[in-house]
Amino acid sequence: MTTSSQAQKIGFIGLGVMGRRMALNLRKAGFPLAVHDFDRAAVAELVAAGASDAGSTAATGAADIVITMLPDTPDVEAVVLGEGGLASAMGPGSVLIDMSSISPMATRAMAETLAAKGVAMLDAPVSGGYQGAENATLSIMIGGDAAVLERCRKVLEAMGKTISHIGGPGAGQVCKVCNQVAVAINIQAVAEAMTLARKNGVDPGKIRSALLGGFAQSKALDLHGQRVLDGNFAAGFRVTLQRKDLKLALENGSATGTALPATALIQQLYGVLSNTGRADLDNSALALLMQEMSGLGGEHGS
C-alpha cells in the first residue's frame, strides 16, 4: 500500500458494486477512511482493508471529505438533508463529494444548503462501470468550485483516470445525464443494426467487424456488440440504473424545455425490460427486445 501525501480523513457512504471498489482504491492510496453502509459484509471487507466502521451517517460526517455513492436522488437527499444527516454533521471547511448519478436540480439545491453551513460540495458522477471502479480508471465529471476541486484532486485521482471540471454546482450531473443519453442511443443503434443483420441472414459478427473499421465505429459497437454476439447480458451496468438515469435526463429536459424524443423512446424500452423481469440484466439487453420484436429466437451470432 502506498502512503498518501494528503492528510485528509475521508468518509465514504455507499458500498455498492461501484462504491465498494472505489473505497478500496482509496485505501490502496493510503487515505485514512471511515465507511458506512447497511451492507455489513461490504463494511467488513473495507475494515479488513484497513478502513474503520463509522457506524452512522453522522459519524461519517466528521471527516474532512465525505464521499457519497448512492442509487438515486432521494437516497442522497436523505443522507445529506435528513435527520442525523451530513448537513448537520459536517463542519465548516469540509467537503461533500457526491459521486452518485442524481438530479442536477436537486444537486444545486443541496449545494446551496451546504454552502450556508460553510460546507463545500462537488457533484462528481462517474462513467466507466464496475471495471473502471475496480481499476481506478473512472471518468469523473465535476461540478462545483474549481478551487475545491484542486483541494480534492488527489482523492479523486485515487479513483479515476480522467478528472473533468465541467462547471458550477450541478454541471457534473448535467454531464452525466448527457453521457447516459449518448450511451443509450448508441446501444439502441447497435441493437437495431445487429438485429437487422440477423433478419437478413447475414453474419452479425462480420457486420460488426466491418462497421468497426468505418464511421459507425464506437465503444458501444465494440463492447456491447460483442455482448450481443455472445448472448452475454450479465450485468455490467444494470437496466434499472440506465432507466433511472434516462428518467433524470427526461426530467431535466422537461424543466429546461429540451426535446429528447429518442431518449424518451429508449427509456420506455428499458421500462419494458424492467417490467418483464429483466431489470438486473446489462443495459445492452435492449438487443433482446429488438430480437423479440423482430420475431427472432434466443440464438445469437450467425
Q: What's this entry about, in short?
A:
The protein is α/β, with parallel strands linked by helices and 302 residues long. The protein has 14 helices and 9 strands.
Unreliable residue stretches: 1-6
Total strands: the figure is 9
> How far from one another are the termini?
47 Å
Computed Rg: 20 Å
Mean pLDDT comes to 94
- Number of helix segments? 14
The helix/strand order is EHEHEHEHHEHEEHEHEHHHHHH
Range of strand content: 5-15%
Shape: elongated
Sheet with most strands: strand arrangement: 3-2-1-4-5-6
- What is the makeup of the main sheet? 6 strands, parallel
Helix/strand-derived category reads alpha/beta
**Percentage of residues assigned to helices:** 40-55%
What can you tell me about this protein's structure?
- The protein has 302 residues and is α/β, with parallel strands linked by helices.
- The model is unreliable at 1-6 (pLDDT under 50).
- It has 14 helices and nine strands.
Topology readout:
Layout: E1 10-13, H1 17-28, E2 33-36, H2 40-48, E3 52-53, H3 57-60, E4 65-68, H4 73-81, H5 86-89, E5 95-98, H6 104-115, E6 120-123, E7 126-127, H7 129-135, E8 138-143, H8 146-157, E9 160-167, H9 171-199, H10 204-212, H11 219-230, H12 239-256, H13 261-275, H14 286-293
Parallel strand pairs: 1-2, 1-4, 2-3, 4-5, 5-6, 8-9
Antiparallel strand pairs: 7-8
